[in-house]
Amino acid sequence: MEKLPFIAVEGPIGIGKTSLAKAISQQFQFHLLKEIVDENPFLGKFYKNIEEWSFQTEMFFLCNRYKQLEDINRDYLQHQLPVVSDYHIFKNIIFAKRNLQEQEYRKYLQIYNILTSDMPQPSLVIYLHASLETLLQRIAKRGREFEKNMSEEYLQQLSADYELFMEQFEQTHPNIPVLQFNGDQLDFVKNKQDLHDIFQKLDQTLQKGVFSNGTSQ
Length: 217
Prior knowledge:
Elements: E1 6-10, H1 17-28, E2 31-33, H2 43-48, H3 50-75, E3 83-85, H4 91-99, H5 102-115, E4 124-129, H6 132-142, H7 152-172, E5 178-182, H8 192-206
Helix pairs in contact: 3-4, 3-5, 4-5
């Protein structure tokens, strides 16, 4: 069986990206890349005052994700060693567009385009989505202190942003397969059969062979 070099698991906050990426890593023997979240010193302040702390928060995430992907590209992807990640750097655009003022967003986008001009694209994206009710339940269950100040409206808007972005992504990146799973219908953390079904769908895609591993546009 041929293995894809880079699988990215994406979706809104609380959907279970890290849990699924860990499971895929163990099942398929992929290197696991986890995004830095708790280490962001601005995140707690951000959820209390988004307008005041959004630029610092988004810049921290951008720089750290850039460094992580640089390291992964050098140590794994260039050697065709498979990687599964619980994010991809394109998520920065989703959050920045939602959170930054227009002038800040223009500056941010310039920096983003420079940093990601030669970043590896995912060979396959797994997109997880769910209703607001499901997301809120899962966020409450994991109990991150800084997420207690997150508003339902913000989470709902973010989910809509993801839906629009992924729709556009599939249109502009027809050579990158996107596997979508509904978190309202599947609970791959509690239900082993649900996780098996995801593995089976992923395995079927992997069996089709290695997809090109290009660079970001």
